[in-house]
């Protein structure tokens, strides 16, 4: 036990140097599971992947091998490749090309890896120490032997595929891995965010396997497994299962008489891939191996940290809102509202509100002012909750114009006339217009999350709605990241979901997003969203900029809708705070420009009327 605690402490200390930690505990392509006779083979294959990305006309790669400093590639067809590629053989349907590893690493690394190589993965070493690569698209392969060997092959192959840089966006399905699944996912998600954990194969739907290449690893297979896989109809997915697949299908079986001379690992015979079978050394990661123990220690540390965070919670953590001096200063890099490990905090109720609590991101309003404001501008007399939402981690370039999109159909209340008065005195605002949600600037955004109206994620020409968009809205407002438990509680309140069921439901939502843009949502210990801005920030940029043109201000007011429409109960506090900020922003804009512009005055009044309709269609 003492040695185990020392190992865990040593791992924690090494957290500061991620590159060294990766080299020490992550196996596979990043740090080679088996002996490495060809040195920089990973870099060679990665450079070829980038080359194929620049040449989409090249057909798909069906396999590869690296030995004696030479990289040999097999293609489905006969491409015309220039030097340093050297033609070896071909029959019209397939061709073999070679190039020295030294030349391969000189290929430019730019753009993105080609689709032709994404299903290709290393499966082990041949008897001479060379690496063997196969194309897993539509491949069904079995592995049989002792349980320790089978589980070791499964674990090692998952690690291999998760860390190959050209297949980072491929999907990996763990079927029947039980307690091994969360360890693998937590350990490898930083390299591949597209893990899925299910208990049985029938939990996977055909639409789950559309899009990016996928590989299914199945433990506990039986005579129906192959039929279930075929019924999924996926033409870009492969499967590795425990046991023999069936007549004619490739499978590997343990061969104790074949031992790796350097590592002592048991070899295997690969059948139905040649006339008599081929001896090779697959990736085997078992208890006792440094890679396996690294995974176990990582999982133990994560559980220990989570347990310590939970044990440190008190009732005050759930009942006391942030004190006036604790929030980030304006223009300061934002922080999440709570430690990621602490879990969600319940918002304070009306009876629990302290008398001296801050309102609207730091602007202090007395009870009398608040009651007067609500009686003038709200259809009900419910007090605005005083919990400040977490900061949003990203935003757009301030110089960028508001995102052009179709505005939802609105039915604003008609003002009495074009000169409806929304004066500063009537609104009861101070001159300061606070930020309810602080949004730091990023240089580049991949998409827009709509918070005004029903949530929607826009990525290029694609629009994502429903639960997937609400997931994005929740994560953005939650500080850019959240745990699986926090997201599940928000999107499916009251449902008792197992960890596997919750992960499956969430992974399906993430897949809808990542099939459009792989870099928006990443999963792991924390689920994170990045590279997006919000329509709230764009509205804020226009209404807070004194030089904004009258027409732009009017158009921006027209975009304003009740925030977070149709969202579940998690949105209640955010909705109130956003609504309050919008009314201040609109009030300030009308105060500054409305005296001379009936159009701005009218648009502001209509926007104010819409915002006051907030909270009427919340999903409980």
3D structure, described in words:
This protein has helices at residues 2-13, 18-25, 41-54, 101-104, 147-163, 180-188, 225-231, 290-311, 315-319, 367-377, 424-427, 466-477, 484-491, 499-514, 535-544, 550-559, 572-593, 598-611, and strands at 61-67, 70-75, 86-90, 95-100, 120-126, 131-135, 140-144, 171-175, 195-198, 214-218, 237-242, 251-259, 266-271, 278-282, 447-450, 456-459, 462-464, 481-482, 521-522, 527-529, 532-534. A hairpin with a 2-residue loop joins β16 and β17. It is elongated, with a radius of gyration of 29 Å. It is α/β, with parallel strands linked by helices. Helix content is 33%, strand content 16%. It has a 14-stranded mixed sheet with strand order 3-4-2-1-6-5-14-13-12-7-11-10-8-9, with helices on both faces. The two termini are 48 Å apart. α1 (2-13) packs across α8 (290-311) and α16 packs parallel to α18.
Helical amount: 25-40%
Low-confidence stretches: 15-39, 317-366, 377-444
Radius of gyration: 29 Å
Largest sheet: 14 strands, mixed
Cross-sheet strand order for the largest sheet = 3-4-2-1-6-5-14-13-12-7-11-10-8-9
How many helices does DSSP assign?
A: 18
Give the strand content.
15-25%
Shape category: elongated
Number of DSSP strand runs: 21
* Cα end-to-end separation: 48 Å
* Whole-number mean pLDDT: 75
Question: Which secondary-structure class do the elements indicate?
Answer: alpha/beta
Structural key phrases:
18 helices, elongated, 620 residues, alpha/beta
Could you give the topology of this structure?
Layout: H1 2-13, H2 18-25, H3 41-54, E1 61-67, E2 70-75, E3 86-90, E4 95-100, H4 101-104, E5 120-126, E6 131-135, E7 140-144, H5 147-163, E8 171-175, H6 180-188, E9 195-198, E10 214-218, H7 225-231, E11 237-242, E12 251-259, E13 266-271, E14 278-282, H8 290-311, H9 315-319, H10 367-377, H11 424-427, E15 447-450, E16 456-459, E17 462-464, H12 466-477, E18 481-482, H13 484-491, H14 499-514, E19 521-522, E20 527-529, E21 532-534, H15 535-544, H16 550-559, H17 572-593, H18 598-611
Parallel strand pairs: 7-11, 7-12, 8-9, 8-10, 10-11, 15-21
Antiparallel strand pairs: 1-2, 1-6, 2-4, 3-4, 5-6, 5-14, 12-13, 13-14, 15-16, 16-17, 18-20, 19-20
Helix pairs in contact: 1-8, 6-8, 13-14, 15-17, 16-18, 17-18
